[in-house]
Amino acid sequence: MSYCGIAPGHLLHGPYHQDEHGFPTRDDRVIFERLVLEINQAGLSWLVTLKKRPGFRAAFADYDLDAVAAYGPAEVERLSADLAIVRNRRKIEAVIENARRLVALRQRHGSLAAWLDSHHPMTKPDWLRLLKRELVFMGGEIAGEFLMSLGYLPGAHDADCPVQARVLAANPPWLTAARNGFANWPA
Out of 3, 33, 46, 185, which one is annotated catalytic? Predict the structure, then answer.
């Protein structure tokens, strides 16, 4: 069953599915949060990740890129013992390193959305190559879900999902690409 089939009505899945998943955003904090969530979901269920969402927000300074980019060994140790988040040192270190890299990308492009836009449209394999080059802890699933959650790749919702109409009305980047004939994406 698809996410659109299981999420509606669920305490945690429902709001994420209905109000966030697949909707475009220009907010750097939201973009960083989505990356943090996807990195931490790797190997776990999405429900575990959503349950720990308040912990991630607190642990990673409300997704303030500059603050997280300044984290050092003491913060890694503190976070490695924090029961409110996924206590995986590799994931914690990846989030911090990615914050540093995203700060640099933001400085070059003005915002994270502008950085993403500067590469759009691309196929999923091209996106994956870009994200693997620019960020750490980037596998195909993490990259794909990250981009889909932000509207850069299609597929966040089933065609008959009621939320899909709202996503389309928000004009996600993939829809613009589809209207321009890119990659035969459904418009």
Answer: 46
